[in-house]
Amino acid sequence: MEPGTIDNLSILYQSSDFIVVNKHWDIRIDSKMWYETLTLQSQLKYRFPELADPDTYYGFRFCHQLDFSTSGALCVALNKAAAGSAYKCFKDRLVTKAYLALVSAHSQVLLLDLSSGKNTTEGMTHMMCIDGTEGCENPKPCQSELIVLEHGSYSGEPVTKVLLQPLTGRTHQLRVHCSAIGHPVVGDFTYSHKKDSSPYRMMLHAYYLRIPTGKELIEVCAPDPFVTTMDSNWVPHHVTHRLDETIQELK
């Protein structure tokens, strides 16, 4: 629950070609805004100044993206060849990603198959939306799998801890899908129609990442932040699926 600082970068994996970090929940990956000096980019430059590549705009090659308010496993390539091998894995859909989330109310196991597109409604152009809703432009196929892990409560309200696997790679995909089925991610101010502003963060975390590059297999789990010892507001009541067993099945 501590805010991010320049020197609290958590490393999950490191080789000569890649670093996987556990991105903090309140830090952007990078920023072109002069006033945003604390970013993952600046954390990496502070921790590994000798690894920054002057031929890149941000100093480091990010293999994929996480939203500003999403924490968890993020892979960084340390050279052009490594970035190319990771890009090919993503392009060929060989990468496995799974996220942990607390979602509002009590949900069930679902395959979410809802096309999403850009929201063109005035005041909502930074958002995505589901096909068929007003202002939804150029919707594309979008699939996610939701597996219930535990039912419980957060600050006294019913919530469900879930494992989410994006089967496609659309912008804000998991957040849009959860909101569309009436179970928005706890703390997601944007996709709760600006109603959920109480929690200290959005409860979405990139937990598992597997990238089978030609030279090495990158496979990491970013520690689960949604446990009572980390956040006493979360109180589990009933376990439906165990996280470790679910990840083994996913592999």
What would you say about this model in short?
The protein has 251 residues and is an alpha+beta fold. Helix content is 14%, strand content 34%.
Architecture blueprint of SSEs:
Elements: E1 11-14, E2 18-23, H1 40-47, E3 61-62, E4 71-77, H2 80-91, E5 96-104, E6 110-113, E7 116-119, E8 128-130, E9 136-140, E10 143-154, E11 157-166, H3 173-180, E12 204-212, E13 217-221, E14 234-239, H4 243-250
Parallel strand pairs: 4-12
Antiparallel strand pairs: 1-2, 2-4, 3-4, 5-11, 5-12, 6-10, 7-8, 7-9, 10-11, 10-14, 12-13
Pfam families: PseudoU_synth_2 (PF00849)
Protein name: RNA pseudouridylate synthase domain-containing protein 1
Domain Pseudouridine synthase RsuA/RluA-like: 18-180
Write structural notes for this entry.
It is built from 4 helices and 14 strands. Helices cover 14% and strands 34% of the residues. Strands 1, 2, 3, 4, 5, 6, 10, 11, 12, 13 and 14 form an 11-stranded mixed β-sheet that branches. A 3-stranded antiparallel β-sheet has the order 8-7-9. It has one domain (10-249): Pseudouridine synthase, CATH 3.30.2350.10. The longest helix has 12 residues, at 80-91.
